[in-house]
Amino acid sequence: MSRVVVIGAGLGGLAAAARLAAAGHSVTVFEGADTVGGKLGLLERDGFTFDTGPSLLTLPAVLQQVFADTGAPLELPLAAVDPACSYVFGDGTALTLPHDAAAVPAALDAALGAGAGAAWQRLHDRSRRLWELVGEPVLRRPVSLAAMARMSTRPADLRVVAPWLTIDGLGRRMLPDARLRTWLNRYATYSGSDPRRTPAVLSVTAFVEQEFGAWYVPGGLRRIVEALAARCRELGVEVHTATPVESVSVRDGRAAGVRVAGRDVTADVVVSNADAAVLYGRLLPRGAVGGAQRRARRTPRSMAGFVLLLGLTGREPGPAHRVYFPADYDAEFDAIFGRRPVPVADPTVYVHAPDDPALRPDEDSEGWFVLVNAPAHDPARGVDWDEPGLRERYTRHILEVLADRGADVRDRIRVLETVTPADLQRRAGAPGGAIYGTASHGPRAALRRPANRSPLPGLYLVGGSAHPGGGIPLVLMSAEIVAGLIGPAGTSPGSSDESRATVAPSRPPRRRPT
């Protein structure tokens, strides 16, 4: 039986721990925070309960598979988010997209004018082929230059992947309506990136969300973490919270365990769910993996987020997911990724307002999760989110922006909590509060993201800062990859064939989870 230590009990760490324990390994998890879950956090105030991380689930089959592969089906109910989202554009145009992809063209024609639906359908059909190319060969396997190169040998596939195009460039090529291009560009923010620098291949995110649907867990997405932590306990995983790892031990040229609370814990394998920048910059001895450590220092961070958690008096019916766009979307990315980042003056505002009785104190109330994109916390070269008064000023500003866009809730507020990028850095260990680790900029972005197998033998990376990226399904895929690379107990750790690092179909069945 191999001894495995997992650093961090975020979603990726717990999923990897469950998979490895089910494969026969002895697994111990050390988490620095007082509770498990990482960015999938929870806050309770005066009867209101707020998810402080992701607010919807895509590719539910990936989540269901984690549980099926580790002993028993997922028992959480999943509810379709329908409509999937409503949008208000800078010119005041409103668009509501249904859960069912087949109904999208008609909704687009009704809101944006004849022809918008057909343009979207052409993009969607193109993205279907893109998903076939990257869903299994790229996202659900270890990052591979060979897999990327194979696409370049087939001209038709190369045209679909289009490494010379950005998401913004793809929209300009395929979507005549500027509002629809704004809608597409938003999907670059799903990886914390600027659509003008994000490779067009990541437009597949829009396809996945619409083709396989948006889903919600009644009671909040935090329940996913709780269910996964329970599965870990059932499998005998030891989870120690409030126990930060001080360093990774290296002996004879390989990872040999970790140092915790002044003592050494030996292991045959170490899996890091810490942000890759933390692992390479702080937890490993200098020079242990020189090239990877240098890349981690040079790669730009993803954007962060500034969050308002609002407990409101009264309830106003409407879609659970709402996006209010500014008149100038480019200015938002200029502010975040410019030479001297600043808080966005006219930000896109995302609102999650679930109609969930479990999350509110009474029927005459509702809770809103409000998010705006923000520069990472960087007092030396950018924004110091701990600057006295900045939290309060920017909170008032966001509420004013919402009011200007037709969603004035200022006289309804019963509870108001804020989470700045600096707060997220402290709570989840994400440097600068960068939600997705590194930004996905440039045609080689996928290859620059830290690989799941580190250059140091016996050390593996899982979670949103590693391949294939952030978001619930991708983080779960990273855990699947890592478990496949390590292999079952009784094999030499790391000796398993990389081609067996995935076992699920690349196109999960489109059915309503129960």
Q: Report the total helices.
A: 17
| Percent helix range | 25-40%
What coarse outline follows from CA principal-axis ratios? Answer: globular
Strand order of the largest sheet: 7-6-15-16-17-14-18
How many β strands by DSSP? 19
The quaternary structure here is single chain
Average pLDDT metric: 90
Q: Which spans have pLDDT < 50 for at least 5 consecutive residues? A: 496-514
Query: What structural category arises from helix and sheet content?
Result: alpha/beta
**Major sheet:** 7 strands, mixed
Radius of gyration: 22 Å
N- to C-terminal separation?
Answer: 36 Å
Instruction: Please report which band the strand proportion falls in: under 5%, 5-15%, 15-25%, 25-35%, 35-45% or over 45%.
Output: 15-25%
Structure description:
The chain has 514 residues and is of the alpha/beta class. It contains 17 helices and 19 strands. Helix content is 34%, strand content 18%. It has a 7-stranded mixed beta sheet. Strand 6 and strand 7 form a beta hairpin. Helix 1 (11-22) packs parallel to helix 10 (222-234). The longest helix has 24 residues, at 116-139. The chain starts with a strand and ends in a 28-residue tail after the last helix. Residues 496-514 have low confidence and may be disordered.
